[in-house]
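seq/struct pair 1
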Amino acid sequence: RYCSGGGGEALECLSYAGSFCSEGTANAFGSQCPEGYFCTGGHVDKQSCTSPPGSFCPIGSTATSGALCPENSYCAGGSNPPMKCKSPSGSYCPQGSSFPNGEICPPGFYCEGGAAGKVQCTAAMGFY
């Protein structure tokens, strides 16, 4: 419910999926769902995200499953935000990673480690 002011009675919230109406709001359409939560809209309040490892609930989430963790980050799941990859040299964190140390760099790429990601090798003919 929300209050439009002027002493009238509380009205039904009209928030859409990805938003919610918090207690005491004066906005009929609510606020955007914060990171770490999902919002189904209507009169339902925001709910803690229960996304699996390798995913997270970004701002405006509409489902508990969330979205895949971005490349060069890792996600523990639940309501935790993405964290910068801590992979050693020769490793990287692909999209959907749930481990801070990432994975071994694939053939044809080099990986500096950390949150740098993987870069395709451009060695000259006859070199590797």
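seq/struct pair 2
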Amino acid sequence: MVFETYYFFKEHIFRIELMFDYLAPIYDLSLKIGNRYSATPVLKNVEFESGDEVLDIGGGTGYLGDLMKKEFNLEYVVLDSNKKMLSKSKQKNIDTMILGNALNLPFKDQSFDMILCVDALHHFMEKTRALEEMKRVLKDRGKIVILDLYPYLFLTKIISWIERRAGEESEFLTPSEISRRLGLETDSFKVNHFQFLLKAKK
């Protein structure tokens, strides 16, 4: 049973990596087209302090980080599990790029002032563990910011079906469920017809 679980996990990760390998060349273009659904909600609703150390989990090509760095004086770290996606961030104004997994963050406790997880949480296999890891590496009085789709929408169900067909996890959580699993003081609100933004304070 243990070996079956291990090989299922490896196969699952391989299929996700393969999907993002194909997406990497066009990922930035898709974000530019849908900019108001990715970067804009964060830029408009999140307050940064000068010099904040920010971790962008599932930051992919560094598109969001590049925009953040133009607007704010930040120490910006992008962590992603896909090599091809991450290689694109080398062309951008990102301080540090790390190939890693959200379920086992390669950082000491209380390393960051802000953690961003934009359109990424639903991809993680073990969401509770990922949220616990975010909380672990967050400094006292730091903030976690999560942007994702409302799970009950027809659009979300279509996206989830497509991603599952590609071998992905694709499970969307409600803001209240994220809040419950984090166990932190949270505030969430609707940023458009499809997405919510959740802020959690440690």
